[in-house]
Amino acid sequence: MKVFTLILFTLFSLSFTSTSNSVPNTNSKPSHAEWNTLLGKYVDQKGNVNYKDFKKDAFALSTYLDSLAKNAPTDQWSKDEKLAYYINLYNAATVKLILDNYPVKSIKDIKSPWDQEWVKIGNKTYSLGTIEHKILRKMNEPRIHFAINCASYSCPKLENTAYLPATMEAQLQKATFSFINDTTRNTISENELQLSNIFKWYKSDFTTKVSLQEYIKPYSKIAISTDAKVKYLDYNWSLNEIK
């Protein structure tokens, strides 16, 4: 009996030791609450950013990016969870790039802004260009082009709320509708579409199943012809800063 009791005690002790010394899961799904707070604090309804004051919270932004780096997506994540991760990562990293080089008049004043490999995901580093072209665009969701922001006036606006898995569909729809009907970025009439260069640069993403006109038509407040002429507008790379 004493031997049996001793065995039970030993097993219990080993079990407790194993549990207490277990390594915490470093691939949990990160919270986007901190990023949401920062967006609400420094981004206005038009998507313009108060970079000057944002610098005061540079540490909080870095902390958020660190949390993303330590919790990289896995195959078990849903598509919406991955979209939220990479869209928020791209936008937050773009803001950090501006803050690190502020004051600047344009993101293009920074040397190779989309080619620098500094954004951490797990134990690897990526460029903004790689995140956009090799990860986000590979997810076959063309509406990401209206969600990611390149810190410029002609870019789709930076929303002042974070993208979340639970509301991803509604947020992407809203961003797409907002961008297409924004007369500072597109001028639409029934027979002529004067469009942002985004539709030119990424035309292949929008036209896998339909024409460009057919892609835009369901979102446009103005009825358009499926054979409307398409022209492209000049792109304003000035910093999307609150004046």
UniProtKB/TrEMBL annotation:
Q: Which residues form a coiled coil?
A: none
Q: Does the keyword Signal apply?
A: yes
Q: Does the keyword Signal apply?
A: yes
* Keywords for the protein's UniProt record, in alphabetical order: Signal
Q: Which residues form the DUF547 domain?
A: 75-180
Q: Which residues form the signal peptide?
A: 1-22
Tell me which Pfam families the record gives.
DUF547
Entries under InterPro entries matching the protein: DUF547
PANTHER family, alphabetized: ELECTRON CARRIER/ PROTEIN DISULFIDE OXIDOREDUCTASE (PTHR46361), ELECTRON CARRIER_ PROTEIN DISULFIDE OXIDOREDUCTASE (PTHR46361:SF3)
Record-given protein name: DUF547 domain-containing protein
Lineage summary = Bacteria, Pseudomonadati, Bacteroidota, Flavobacteriia, Flavobacteriales
